[in-house]
Amino acid sequence: MRVAQGATEVWCARSSVASSGLDRVARCGGVLVDYRRNFVLVCSSLFVALGVGCTWVQLNEGGEQVQFANQKAVESCEQVGKTVARTKSSLWVFARSEATIREELRTLARNDGAAMGGTTVSPLGPVEDGVQSFGIYVCKG
Length: 141
Hints:
The protein folds into 2 domains: 2-52, no CATH class; 63-138, Dodecin subunit-like, CATH 3.30.1660. Helix content is 26%, strand content 36%. The chain contains 2 helices and 11 strands. The strands form 4 sheets. The protein has a 4-stranded mixed beta sheet, covered by helices on one side. The protein has a 3-stranded antiparallel beta sheet with strand order 3-4-5. A two-stranded antiparallel sheet has the order 1-2.
């Protein structure tokens, strides 16, 4: 028997179909299947897996030459500027991982550091809602 709802078609060997309003469910081989709910679950899972853990910020050629260091390591360096890096901390209702956010902020800071002639960047404060301030330094040696 063929079960069809919109563009979704499912073939079941032994099945019965129950329709109530906008809901469409089918019983295939003794298992009750709600196709809309499954579709939403699959799409949501893919979105979370592909979007929330991904990083979209790429380190540019100049940024590759800039080091990341803590404040203690830049005490003997000359500060040449500051930058504020921003990235999305969530996608719609899904929170992004702290590690991904931190990695993107560091990458953005290193790219900015290269543009300002720095050799090292160091965080000036904590990450708050996908925003973090960095000092840009020139370190010799």
